[in-house]
Design goal:
Layout: E1 10-11, E2 14-16, E3 34-37, E4 41-42, E5 48-49, E6 54-61, E7 64-69, E8 73-78, E9 82-84, H1 87-103, E10 107-113, H2 115-118, E11 128-133, E12 149-151, E13 157-161, H3 162-170, H4 174-181, E14 186-187, H5 190-197, H6 206-230, H7 232-238, H8 247-257, H9 265-285, H10 294-303, H11 318-335, H12 344-354, H13 360-380, H14 389-409, E15 427-429
Length: about 425
């Protein structure tokens, strides 16, 4: 959800009212929320987790949450055993939950996306939902900035505001185009019918760049993950020595065993140091280090905490999505219409990759082999060079007129007589 002036407890000479009375045991805990434990707990292996430990919410289930704790891993806690760590997170969670409850009746398009739409789902696949909502007219007035997206607490469902969805589609954003073009896309209001009827206005050769850039970013993640895994286990073993080697010594050892060539010894040392920094940044992002630095990496290695998968076990989930994106873009550019559900040999290959039966190196080679076909499809494509901005503009104006009409005439429904009350900003003088 978009940030608003209420994000900060102080603005100018005023202060937002009401946070002092918030019950931290009752606010929602969205995925990613930093929390503090209120009880002591024994983790697997008998390791004691004291009260007051800080963790990050990973998922909700069985009336509680899996929490990622640095050096321990994922541990389940009941809701009453956790509180948000920061007041700002309490405020964000309350606003996100309030916006979700108030505005989900205003959804005008809804689609099931992800592996279910691609024909690659199994019994363990999550159900991901995307869609579009319209803002009641009153929500567009005043100083409080209206939310541009609605996100469920578990992160599985996201809705974009109409204007944001149109702007993303005009940029050929893969997620937005998939939401609008997947065969199961369903309009729940005439506004959604108009949006789906005009979706061809968003299509252009720009999908070559947007799908391609996104796919290449995934490729970069895979390459980086592979590089980080190559010597990670060896490096962690070195850091357990007595005394532990410093960064310069570790870089010197890595440079000596790395299969990657470098023009000079200095370049090899620099590449090794860069690798170490990428490693502790990656472990920090996973919530496994207490700080984003070399000292925290050393403490982690010597502490015997949870270890990420070894290089032999590396099975990046986004590997098959990379190939799927390239295949979708190639077919769309060549045929003029999209096909999201995989079939035939491609589907078999993607399922093998998803199941971890294909080495990462082979996946990367598959992607490289598909690139010339993608480029040829782009050169030969009959899609327009640019999206139809004028048509998109007319659509947004039509939607705006209809939202205003329902509001003014107080027609029944969530955009008219039954519209949720817009949030008001309350101020008091700072003490």
């Amino acid at each position: 959800m978009s940030d608003s002036p209420t994000d900060s407890p102080r603005t100018g000479a005023g202060r937002i009212r009401g946070l002092e009375q918030v019950d931290r045991l009752s606010v929602p805990l969205p995925h990613g929320t930093e929390v503090t434990t209120r009880v002591e707990r024994l983790a697997s292996g008998g390791r004691r987790i004291p009260q007051g430990v800080v963790g990050r919410v990973v998922r909700a289930h069985d009336g509680g949450f899996d929490v990622q704790i640095v050096g321990v891993g994922e541990v389940w806690f009941a809701r009453e055993e956790l509180v948000p760590r920061r007041v700002g997170q309490v405020n964000f969670a309350r606003r996100r939950e309030a916006a979700w409850s108030a505005l989900t009746p205003c959804v005008v398009v809804e689609t099931r996306v992800g592996s279910h739409a691609w024909g690659l789902a199994n019994e363990n696949s999550d159900v991901d939902v995307r869609g579009v909502f319209a803002l009641p007219l009153a929500w567009t007035f005043g100083l409080v900035e209206a939310p541009m997206d609605l996100v469920s607490a578990d992160g599985s469902t996201t809705y974009w505001e109409v204007r944001k969805a149109v702007e993303q589609a005009l940029r050929a954003d893969p997620n937005t185009l998939e939401t609008l073009f997947v065969p199961g896309a369903k309009a729940t209001d005439v506004l959604g019918e108009w949006l789906l009827a005009e979706r061809e206005a968003f299509v252009s050769k720009a999908i070559f760049g947007s799908f391609g850039r996104y796919a290449m970013s995934q490729l970069d993640k895979l390459t980086r993950s592979q590089r980080l895994a190559e010597h990670r286990d060896l490096l962690l073993e070195w850091l357990c020595e007595e005394p532990a080697p410093d960064l310069d010594e570790v870089a010197k050892r890595l440079a000596a065993v790395s299969p990657r060539s470098a023009p000079t010894q200095q370049d090899a040392l620099l590449a090794a140091k860069t690798y170490v920094k990428q490693l502790y940044r990656s472990l920090w992002d996973q919530g496994l280090l207490t700080a984003n630095d070399f000292a925290a990496l050393t403490a982690y290695a010597r502490g015997g905490g949870q270890r990420p998968p070894s290089a032999r076990e590396l099975r990046p989930k986004n590997a098959y999505n990379l190939l799927r994106l390239v295949a979708t873009a190639t077919g769309w550019l060549r045929e003029g219409t999209p096909t999201f559900e995989a079939s035939g040999a491609l589907k078999a290959r993607l399922l093998d990759i998803k199941a971890g039966r294909v080495p990462l190196e082979d996946v990367l080679r598959d992607a490289e082999a598909m690139a010339p076909d993608l480029e040829a499809a782009h050169r030969e494509s009959k899609l327009p060079e640019h999206p139809d901005y004028e048509r998109a503009d007319r659509l947004l104006r039509r939607v705006g007129d209809e939202v205003a009409r329902r509001w003014v005439l107080k027609e029944p429904g969530p955009l008219g007589r039954d519209a949720p009350e817009a949030p008001a900003m309350e101020w008091r003088e700072a003490e």
